[in-house]
Amino acid sequence: MKRIILLLLLVLSASLLAAQVPSVNAAPNTLFTGADGKFESAPDTVLVQFNVSAQADNAKAAYDQASKETEQVRQIMRDNGIDPKTAQINSYSIEPVYDWKTAKRKLIGYRASTSVTLKLKDFAKIGPITQQLADAAVSESQSITYTLDTMDDAKSKAVADAYRRAHDSATALAKAAGRTVGELSYASVDTFENVRPMVPMPRVMAMKAESSAPAPTEEFSPQTVTVTAHVNALFTLK
Predict the structure, then answer these.
(1) pLDDT tens figures, 128-144
(2) Which of 8-17, 153-162, 216-225 reaches the highest mean pLDDT?
(3) Which one in 132, 139, 160, 220 has a CA-CA gap of 20 to 30 Å to 229?
Protein backbone atom coordinates (compact mmCIF):
# COMPACT_ATOMS: atom_id res chain seq x y z
CA MET A 1 0.00 0.00 0.00
CA LYS A 2 2.82 2.39 0.88
CA ARG A 3 4.49 1.67 -2.49
CA ILE A 4 1.24 2.47 -4.33
CA ILE A 5 0.88 5.79 -2.46
CA LEU A 6 4.52 6.68 -3.13
CA LEU A 7 4.09 5.86 -6.82
CA LEU A 8 1.00 8.09 -7.02
CA LEU A 9 2.88 10.95 -5.34
CA LEU A 10 5.74 10.60 -7.80
CA VAL A 11 3.31 10.62 -10.74
CA LEU A 12 1.51 13.71 -9.39
CA SER A 13 4.82 15.51 -8.77
CA ALA A 14 5.97 14.75 -12.29
CA SER A 15 2.66 16.02 -13.67
CA LEU A 16 2.99 19.29 -11.74
CA LEU A 17 6.54 19.83 -12.95
CA ALA A 18 5.46 19.13 -16.52
CA ALA A 19 2.68 21.70 -16.16
CA GLN A 20 5.11 24.38 -14.99
CA VAL A 21 7.60 23.93 -17.82
CA PRO A 22 6.25 25.04 -21.23
CA SER A 23 6.53 22.75 -24.22
CA VAL A 24 9.37 23.98 -26.41
CA ASN A 25 10.44 22.52 -29.75
CA ALA A 26 14.17 22.95 -29.31
CA ALA A 27 16.10 22.99 -32.57
CA PRO A 28 19.64 21.59 -32.86
CA ASN A 29 22.39 23.76 -31.41
CA THR A 30 20.10 25.40 -28.89
CA LEU A 31 20.05 25.32 -25.11
CA PHE A 32 16.94 25.56 -22.91
CA THR A 33 17.18 26.71 -19.29
CA GLY A 34 15.00 28.17 -16.54
CA ALA A 35 15.64 30.08 -13.32
CA ASP A 36 13.88 31.90 -10.49
CA GLY A 37 14.54 35.50 -9.48
CA LYS A 38 13.18 37.89 -6.90
CA PHE A 39 13.04 41.49 -5.79
CA GLU A 40 12.40 42.64 -2.22
CA SER A 41 11.36 46.12 -1.20
CA ALA A 42 10.02 47.95 1.81
CA PRO A 43 6.29 48.71 1.31
CA ASP A 44 5.30 52.23 0.34
CA THR A 45 1.55 51.92 0.93
CA VAL A 46 -0.70 50.66 3.71
CA LEU A 47 -4.31 49.60 3.23
CA VAL A 48 -6.52 50.16 6.26
CA GLN A 49 -9.75 48.19 5.93
CA PHE A 50 -12.63 48.55 8.37
CA ASN A 51 -16.33 47.78 8.55
CA VAL A 52 -19.09 50.01 9.90
CA SER A 53 -22.45 48.45 10.79
CA ALA A 54 -25.60 49.28 12.72
CA GLN A 55 -28.63 47.25 13.74
CA ALA A 56 -32.12 48.59 14.45
CA ASP A 57 -35.76 47.54 14.50
CA ASN A 58 -36.40 48.63 10.92
CA ALA A 59 -34.36 49.22 7.77
CA LYS A 60 -34.63 53.02 7.86
CA ALA A 61 -33.43 53.23 11.46
CA ALA A 62 -30.50 50.92 10.66
CA TYR A 63 -29.66 53.08 7.63
CA ASP A 64 -29.82 56.29 9.66
CA GLN A 65 -27.62 54.86 12.43
CA ALA A 66 -25.05 53.56 9.91
CA SER A 67 -25.03 56.98 8.23
CA LYS A 68 -24.38 58.66 11.58
CA GLU A 69 -21.49 56.33 12.40
CA THR A 70 -20.03 56.72 8.90
CA GLU A 71 -20.05 60.50 9.35
CA GLN A 72 -17.96 59.97 12.49
CA VAL A 73 -15.50 58.00 10.37
CA ARG A 74 -15.32 60.82 7.83
CA GLN A 75 -14.67 63.30 10.64
CA ILE A 76 -11.83 61.13 11.97
CA MET A 77 -10.27 61.23 8.50
CA ARG A 78 -10.60 65.01 8.31
CA ASP A 79 -9.05 65.39 11.77
CA ASN A 80 -6.02 63.46 10.47
CA GLY A 81 -5.70 65.55 7.30
CA ILE A 82 -7.23 62.93 5.01
CA ASP A 83 -9.86 63.69 2.38
CA PRO A 84 -12.76 61.22 2.88
CA LYS A 85 -13.08 61.02 -0.92
CA THR A 86 -9.82 59.06 -1.04
CA ALA A 87 -11.46 56.16 0.83
CA GLN A 88 -13.12 53.44 -1.24
CA ILE A 89 -16.34 51.59 -0.42
CA ASN A 90 -15.92 47.87 -1.04
CA SER A 91 -19.50 46.85 -0.21
CA TYR A 92 -22.76 48.11 1.28
CA SER A 93 -25.80 46.10 2.34
CA ILE A 94 -28.99 46.17 4.40
CA GLU A 95 -30.07 42.72 5.53
CA PRO A 96 -32.79 41.36 7.80
CA VAL A 97 -31.71 39.84 11.12
CA TYR A 98 -33.51 36.75 12.37
CA ASP A 99 -33.73 34.93 15.69
CA TRP A 100 -32.98 31.25 15.00
CA LYS A 101 -33.47 30.02 18.57
CA THR A 102 -36.85 28.53 17.68
CA ALA A 103 -37.90 26.30 14.80
CA LYS A 104 -39.75 29.19 13.21
CA ARG A 105 -37.41 32.07 12.52
CA LYS A 106 -38.39 35.47 13.87
CA LEU A 107 -37.47 38.81 12.34
CA ILE A 108 -35.86 40.94 15.04
CA GLY A 109 -34.43 43.82 13.04
CA TYR A 110 -32.26 45.00 10.16
CA ARG A 111 -28.53 45.42 9.85
CA ALA A 112 -26.80 47.99 7.63
CA SER A 113 -23.14 47.31 6.87
CA THR A 114 -20.46 48.94 4.78
CA SER A 115 -16.83 47.98 4.15
CA VAL A 116 -14.27 50.71 3.54
CA THR A 117 -10.64 50.65 2.42
CA LEU A 118 -8.33 53.60 3.02
CA LYS A 119 -4.97 53.84 1.25
CA LEU A 120 -2.26 55.68 3.16
CA LYS A 121 1.26 56.74 2.25
CA ASP A 122 2.04 58.27 5.63
CA PHE A 123 2.55 55.32 7.97
CA ALA A 124 2.60 57.64 11.00
CA LYS A 125 -1.17 58.05 10.62
CA ILE A 126 -1.94 54.35 11.04
CA GLY A 127 -1.83 54.35 14.84
CA PRO A 128 -3.94 57.48 15.41
CA ILE A 129 -6.63 56.47 12.89
CA THR A 130 -7.05 52.90 14.13
CA GLN A 131 -7.08 54.08 17.74
CA GLN A 132 -9.65 56.80 17.06
CA LEU A 133 -11.89 54.35 15.22
CA ALA A 134 -11.72 52.05 18.24
CA ASP A 135 -12.37 54.92 20.68
CA ALA A 136 -15.43 56.03 18.72
CA ALA A 137 -16.69 52.41 18.60
CA VAL A 138 -17.86 52.89 15.02
CA SER A 139 -15.58 50.35 13.38
CA GLU A 140 -16.81 46.77 13.70
CA SER A 141 -13.47 45.37 12.51
CA GLN A 142 -10.08 46.68 11.39
CA SER A 143 -7.14 45.26 9.47
CA ILE A 144 -4.00 46.72 7.91
CA THR A 145 -2.00 45.38 5.00
CA TYR A 146 1.29 46.71 3.68
CA THR A 147 1.80 46.67 -0.05
CA LEU A 148 3.84 48.17 -2.88
CA ASP A 149 2.24 50.79 -5.11
CA THR A 150 5.05 50.53 -7.69
CA MET A 151 4.41 46.83 -8.30
CA ASP A 152 5.13 46.93 -12.05
CA ASP A 153 8.64 48.23 -11.43
CA ALA A 154 9.22 45.52 -8.82
CA LYS A 155 8.06 42.83 -11.26
CA SER A 156 10.46 44.12 -13.91
CA LYS A 157 13.36 43.88 -11.46
CA ALA A 158 12.38 40.35 -10.44
CA VAL A 159 12.22 39.31 -14.10
CA ALA A 160 15.64 40.85 -14.77
CA ASP A 161 17.08 38.88 -11.83
CA ALA A 162 15.52 35.64 -13.08
CA TYR A 163 16.83 36.21 -16.62
CA ARG A 164 20.33 36.91 -15.32
CA ARG A 165 20.30 33.62 -13.42
CA ALA A 166 18.96 31.74 -16.44
CA HIS A 167 21.66 33.23 -18.67
CA ASP A 168 24.36 32.40 -16.13
CA SER A 169 23.18 28.79 -16.00
CA ALA A 170 23.15 28.57 -19.80
CA THR A 171 26.65 30.08 -19.98
CA ALA A 172 28.02 27.57 -17.45
CA LEU A 173 26.43 24.61 -19.27
CA ALA A 174 27.63 25.80 -22.68
CA LYS A 175 31.15 26.31 -21.34
CA ALA A 176 31.20 22.76 -19.96
CA ALA A 177 30.31 21.51 -23.42
CA GLY A 178 32.98 23.63 -25.10
CA ARG A 179 30.45 26.00 -26.63
CA THR A 180 29.30 29.58 -26.07
CA VAL A 181 25.84 31.07 -25.64
CA GLY A 182 24.38 32.95 -28.56
CA GLU A 183 21.21 35.00 -28.96
CA LEU A 184 17.97 34.53 -27.06
CA SER A 185 15.56 32.57 -29.26
CA TYR A 186 12.57 32.15 -26.95
CA ALA A 187 11.48 33.13 -23.43
CA SER A 188 8.48 32.85 -21.12
CA VAL A 189 7.91 34.73 -17.86
CA ASP A 190 5.75 34.21 -14.77
CA THR A 191 5.63 36.60 -11.81
CA PHE A 192 4.23 36.11 -8.32
CA GLU A 193 3.54 38.49 -5.42
CA ASN A 194 3.44 37.69 -1.71
CA VAL A 195 0.25 39.66 -1.19
CA ARG A 196 -1.67 38.27 1.79
CA PRO A 197 -5.43 38.51 2.17
CA MET A 198 -6.69 41.01 4.72
CA VAL A 199 -8.11 39.21 7.73
CA PRO A 200 -10.58 41.37 9.66
CA MET A 201 -9.92 41.65 13.38
CA PRO A 202 -12.86 41.79 15.80
CA ARG A 203 -13.73 45.10 17.39
CA VAL A 204 -11.62 45.88 20.42
CA MET A 205 -13.17 48.37 22.80
CA ALA A 206 -10.82 51.13 23.91
CA MET A 207 -9.59 50.75 27.48
CA LYS A 208 -9.06 53.87 29.54
CA ALA A 209 -5.68 53.97 31.25
CA GLU A 210 -3.72 56.52 33.22
CA SER A 211 -0.91 56.47 30.68
CA SER A 212 -1.45 56.28 26.94
CA ALA A 213 -0.30 52.90 25.59
CA PRO A 214 1.51 52.83 22.23
CA ALA A 215 -0.37 51.66 19.17
CA PRO A 216 -0.08 47.95 18.24
CA THR A 217 2.00 48.91 15.18
CA GLU A 218 4.34 51.27 17.09
CA GLU A 219 8.11 50.78 16.55
CA PHE A 220 7.65 47.65 14.41
CA SER A 221 8.95 47.62 10.84
CA PRO A 222 6.47 46.75 8.06
CA GLN A 223 7.07 43.40 6.41
CA THR A 224 8.95 43.62 3.13
CA VAL A 225 7.12 42.95 -0.11
CA THR A 226 8.67 40.17 -2.19
CA VAL A 227 8.03 39.68 -5.89
CA THR A 228 9.33 36.50 -7.53
CA ALA A 229 9.63 35.61 -11.18
CA HIS A 230 10.40 32.50 -13.20
CA VAL A 231 12.00 32.78 -16.63
CA ASN A 232 12.35 29.99 -19.19
CA ALA A 233 14.80 30.85 -21.96
CA LEU A 234 16.00 29.19 -25.14
CA PHE A 235 19.42 30.26 -26.41
CA THR A 236 21.29 29.44 -29.59
CA LEU A 237 24.69 27.82 -29.25
CA LYS A 238 27.84 28.93 -31.00
Answers:
(1) 998 898 888 887 788 88
(2) 153-162
(3) 220
Question: Which of 91, 113, 147 corresponds to the end of one domain?
Answer: 147
CA pair distance 45, 197, nearest whole angstrom = 15
pLDDT digits (tens, 9 = 90+) for 158-206: 999 999 999 999 999 999 999 999 999 999 999 987 655 444 444 443 4
Q: What one-letter code names the amino acid at 137?
A: A
**Cβ–Cβ < 8 Å for 114, 92:** yes
Record the pTM. Answer: 0.64
User: Looking at the domain assignment, is residue 9 inside a domain?
Assistant: no
